[in-house]
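Memo to structure team: turn this sequence into structure tokens by end of day. - J.P.
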Amino acid sequence: MQTATPDYRKKVFQYINNHLNEEFSLYSGTEYFEKSVKTDKSITFLKLIKNHFFLRRKLLFQTGMWQESLKSKVLVLEMNPRIISNWLLLIFRKISRKKTVLWGHAWPRNGKNSNSDKIRQIMRLLADEIVVYTKTQAKELKNKMPNKIIIPAPNAVFYQSEMQISHTPIEEINDIIYVGRLTKAKKPLILAHAFIKVMDGLPIQSNLIFVGEGEEKLKIENLVSKKELHHKIKVLGHIGDYKKLKELYSKSLFSVSPGYVGLSITQSFGFGVPMLISKNENHSPEIEAVNINENSIYFTTDNIADLSIKIMDFFNNKSYWVNQKNEICNKCKNDYSIENMANKFIALL
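Reply from structure team:
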């Protein structure tokens, strides 16, 4: 059961559905707490339910799934204390001795020592098993809950067969790409300003590509218009199509995470494209995929000047990074594939 099921989750649920058939049901609302995250309604086996947000979308109660949720052999819920209906399901299923699994980040955004983790810990205690996004989080949570079954299902967006490098000639690899939500926390405007600052020193073919939606999109578009840079900065909106993403990454020397790192890091590595990352952020757990100077480098957080310097560093070491593509891709393929992730859920039965 999901708050929302965006298109980047389609493949993992499709894989589970293909293997379990009638033993698998997927329920989801149409929007996440953040409105920019919307459900992909092309998932044919998805059963839509109703999300009731309240307190300015800080809390959620879901309806339309209670009967099957209470009787199913195994129920997987989001590990999010803000979903009030999940608390009730955990309690009711605990009483009826039915297996309930929590899936999500082991710790709140503010970290494992935050006050909100005390509430999350109560939720974790009610679950029979817990699935987290990385091996690192599984180890950390196991230290806190040694008697709980904790399973790492590394966050993935591609099948192993889809993780492949392009063979684009090196002289055609000149773009910089950002893929993700265009929100303040992700800081895409910082990247736009840094690119403008340094673009005259880059190859003439270099473009900055933004892929995503969010409240910062209009600000970026306004900046591009003001500077008359439509030919250099492309704001493409959300793209979920694999072939289109593959084409964009094939001409990108590196990707950038100007704010906190999320799932886009494994997407980038899956195509063999290294990432330039803001150093001192409250990163999502996918940060464990980073190997500095092998698949990533850091820049000083919120420092446009340093970001500009690191952009130049990538181009000054272009041959090295292009030669790293195969190693970056293979490492990601081994650890962050749809097959690896989905099989952890199939094994719950």
